[in-house]
Amino acid sequence: MWLRRDRSTFDELDGGAEPYAQDEQPAEAEAPETGPDTEPGVVPEGATGPRPARAPGERRRAERRRRALRVAKRRRLTLWCTLLVLASVVTAAVQVIPWWAVAPSVVLLGSYLAILRVSVQIDAEQRRAAAQARAERARRARRRAAELEARRPVAEIIDLAAHRDEIFDQYAETPRRAVGD
Description:
The protein has helices at residues 11-14, 56-93, 103-151. The protein is mostly helical and 181 residues long. The protein starts with 10 loop residues before the first helix and ends in a 30-residue tail after the last helix.
């Protein structure tokens, strides 16, 4: 696990990322382009159509997995930079290398820690923006539901107690009437 090779591309980080929410797909991503020489229903090679819709729970699990992979990669790189500094300090202490040869590894660790600090701030901003977007979508959904409830027709309520002065008996004999009445 410690010696696992990191991928040179960030496929595992953004492999399932959807740049737009399901209801906010751009118009050009709705359907792949088909030309006159392509059959209907067949997607040409290289065409990127819309991704299949994911369930909200699946999307959250995928996002947690991507975040865990990012954090693990950052921890491994921090560990290796720290080990490099430690090794250069030890070799300088036993006078295998001059004391000033420790500087490159210290600069490397310092610059990596600075980059980590910035990336943590960016991650926090993205999480905050995502939470605000979710809250805005929920607020819009509540407002839409309230508008639909307000538009729903109100039924007329009839007071049946006022019309109960005469009781209807279906088995009572009706008065006989003459033909043609």
